[in-house]
Amino acid sequence: MPEIDTKREHIRALEGVHLFHFSMSTCSQRVRMTATEKGVDWTSHHIDLGKNEHLSPDFVGVNPNGLVPVFVHGGRTFIESNDIIAYLDVAFPCRPLTPENSADATFVADAIASADEAQGAIKLLSHEFLFKPKVLKSPREFERFSRECPNPSLIYFRRGWLTGPVPDVVLQIRKPGQQPRHVSTRYLISRHLGSHGCRKGSHQPG
Ligand SMILES: N[C@@H](CCC(=O)N[C@@H](CS)C(=O)NCC(=O)O)C(=O)O
Hints:
Glutaredoxin, five-stranded mixed sheet, binds glutathione, 50% helix, alpha+beta
């Protein structure tokens, strides 16, 4: 259970349940869905990743890795979405999310674990399709990001994504009762670009 020792006094002083999250972050979505399913009320602290709010000294003081989500319960701080989900299910036992039947419980545990495994591929796809049009590709923007970012793995990802060819990550797709399928993000991206080309062509006069 990664509970972290936040240095910020005002975070330790928080009462009730607080979530530092970003609307379009899948890790944040999982935690929001869990809290909602369980009927837990929480106070929202929206951290806009598009504006690099996760690199601000204030937020880095809360999570030194510069990542959302961060969950605060009665002044205790937790990171890692899957651990937050597990904590929520224990700390708020109403409407338990873990099935009693062991086969179903295994399926739920596997599904939660696969969300974590898919994170790299989802990050790449969302940067490519959702964020790219909004991100300035200037070296100056990247320099600023590298200067302010406390987490070397975020800098490494962004450098590769902004400057290089589209990197490749394998996405594992699992459905109940079926063998997992492996799909490459490079394949998904090239298929998307290909289908755009087709759509454009179909509008051309004949
Ligand atoms: N394993 C962590 C991953 C957290 C993570 O990667 N969060 C993303 C949003 S889903 C983030 O804050 N990214 C900031 C960035 O890429 O600059 C979790 O599940 O909570």
